[in-house]
Amino acid sequence: MGDVYRADTLEKKLPLYKVEHDCIINKFAEITVCFRVDLKEIFTLSQPDYESLHQTWIKALKILPKYTIFHKQDWFVEEKYRPDFSQNNLSFLDRAFERHFNERSFLNHYCYLYITLSYPEKAKKNSMWSSLVRGKIIPKEIDSPGVITNFFDTVSQFQRILTDSGFIRLERLTEAEIIGSEEKAGIIEKYLAVSQEDVIPLSDIDFSQGLQIGAKYFNLFTLSDIDDLPGSVSTDKRYDRLSTDKSSCNMGFAAPVGLLLSCNHIYNQYLFIDDHTENIKDFERKARNLNSLSLYSRENAINKEWYDQYLNEAISYNQISVRAHFNVFLWSEDPEQLKEYRNLATAGIAAMDCKPRLNTKDIPTLFWAGIPGNASDCPSEETFYTFLEQAACFINHETNYRSSSSPFGIKMVDRLSGKPILVDISDEPMKKGYTTNRNKFILGPSGSGKSFFTNHMVKQYYEQGTHVLLVDTGNSYLGLCDLISRQTNGRDGVYLTYTEENPISFNPFYTEDRQFDLEKKESIKTLILTLWKRDTDIPTRAEEVALSNAVNYYLVALKDKTDITPGFNTFYEFVNGPYRKILEEKKVREKDFDIDNFINVLAPYYEGGEYDYLLNSAKELDLLQKRFIVFELDNIKDHKILFPVVTLIIMETFINKMRRLKGTRKMILIEEAWKAIAKEGMAEYIKYLFKTVRKFFGEAVVVTQEVDDIIHSPIVKDTIINNSDCKILLDQRKYLNKFEQIQNLLGLSDKEKEQILSINLDNNPNRRYKEVWIGLGGVKSAVYATEVSPEEYFTYTTEETEKVKLFDLANRKGSMQLAITEMANGARAS
């Protein structure tokens, strides 16, 4: 005859009675309030932050009434990233990004907190009083209504203390979230099935050989024996893999059994707040008994010393005595994989300086005690006495990286798990008060991944409706701009550069609607004045008036006579013809305005002159409505004629966008070109830009790679850095010995320094990515990963051989998208 198993219904054994007023009431008349907990992201807290967080927990726990049970339950569940491919607005590169990360595994974190009001009789029960094994359960009422009212008031204060700290946010769970609905499972159902899915199939719970729920097998590690615990604990530990000899990356004391334990597990933390006075009296009595028996056994004498030390600590430092229990549940549907998980858990517990103890005896009872609202079923023999400060060190403090709640942002990657997340570094920080502007300063040495990050950022800004204007000196954005141009059939993606075969050219007099506002008129006058008076003193008032009149009369003529082609040639002819007659009629003297000198100086820009191509573009290009424009200045940055003109066109283009495009997001990104621009009288423009762009829903971004540039440039120090609340740094290990200068210049805190120096120290070799630090107003900062799909890689690449191959292929196929796809497929195959 085989084994006979006793089975029973869950309804009969379930220790919970009902859910009422968003509280769980169990069959022992204990009341539990449930919260969802939001914690800070891992690797974003410093050592002082952990100290403050630890003190916050202690302050909150101290106000809870006696016989309260604190049960924090952290779920860490292996999930897969599943993008929504049904979105119609996904671009070619967006779709490639989502395909690259599709089905990527990551560890998701869910955190709940249950506070239970118990009573003395229940607090003293051991495992034989568990509702799982008792035949009959008689509910008991908590006799005084005032006790319940006081409990709820205290819980509200507890919530306020934690929330006001800024480190933790508690959200009270509703009845529907506790018991579930027809569409979505509640936390009780999720726990009993050990699943975070919204729809959960029915499964048997089998305790015959440990614990098995459906196809899931379980192991349990407990931290409940004093002999298994370390001699001392701390609020945090140094994470050596992200630390250097000049920086220290910190993690919570319990992090090795939290996010750093990369497998399916639940970390339960129980604190039983008994009657402190009664506990001390009980220890005093036991100490006296052991003293009486010490003559008969040396063990009794040693134990008596331990009791004395505990009592001395409690009385001398006003420590609160509590009971504690911590355990880690592991699960997997594959028994062989569960063995690997055991090894990971063993290493994690050992990293806390604790002795790993695989508990096979108490797994049914401790699983049952983990049911929300049933923490009092945790057997007393599985708890140990300690003080509140020491017990609070075992609380898990961190969560994984979270996406911004804003719909706008850039897709970065969690540095720990590789999961894509949306990071808003423009709007949300301003709404939350982290920053007062959207400007950005980017610093990264050559090879740090700076071009990939900036390409990745501007691509996503463009696809979310932003007008992007880029000023570059290294062809970093040629691939992206060409792709945009071909995808939009030339309607967007304008790449303006100078070559002998195709010299750079503009038409400052062209607008699609032939409307010229004050800003446009002023930019035209400034441009002509620069060409006219480049090597002479500043113009006289009479010359300024004459030039202003010439421009205004010409623009009136453009409106009245549609047969005039807007351009510098017709402007030159207008000045030399009709305007000359106007001056003669007004009897303007030669010494006030020498029109012959004016005509002669501007002749090189007229038809047949040396630079006749410069201001007479036949493309009729109105840059106001172009959303992606690149000015490539590498070939003309030392040209005395072309460079000043181009920089003025840049200035006019963006200011025009700023003032005329109401309610539209605008970005100007100046790469290494800012050094050349600053030499040519554009310094005042950069200062003006950084101080006023925020008023026009815009942001200015400066990118540089040399530390000496930012140290020695007053423009960067006094204007760009001071007016850029978002600072972005890439791998700074090349500047390790200079980093103190950078830290002082950028006003970085020690916590931010430690985060920055941890960049790329522990990258996953199975993934191709570079890390980047983003700091927002000195309030929020974190390190993210820039990981892209092969399609994005070949779009952004600055490697000369890859770019040449890509453009050759695009010309042969007649499509940049097909060329990128072919090269990406080839990279995957290799």
Automatic annotation (TrEMBL):
Q: Where is the TraG N-terminal Bacteroidetes domain?
A: 5-54
Limits of the TraG P-loop domain: 409-825
- Membrane-spanning regions, if any? none
Q: Which SUPFAM superfamilies match?
A: P-loop containing nucleoside triphosphate hydrolases (SSF52540)
The residues the entry assigns to the signal sequence are: none
Report the InterPro entries cross-referenced here. Answer: Conjugation_ATPase_TraG (IPR022509), F-pilin_assembly_TraC (IPR053155), P-loop_NTPase (IPR027417), P-loop_TraG (IPR043964), TraG_N_Bacteroidetes (IPR024451)
Q: What is the name listed in the Swiss-Prot or TrEMBL entry for this protein?
A: TraG family conjugative transposon ATPase
What organism does this protein naturally occur in?
A: Adhaeribacter rhizoryzae
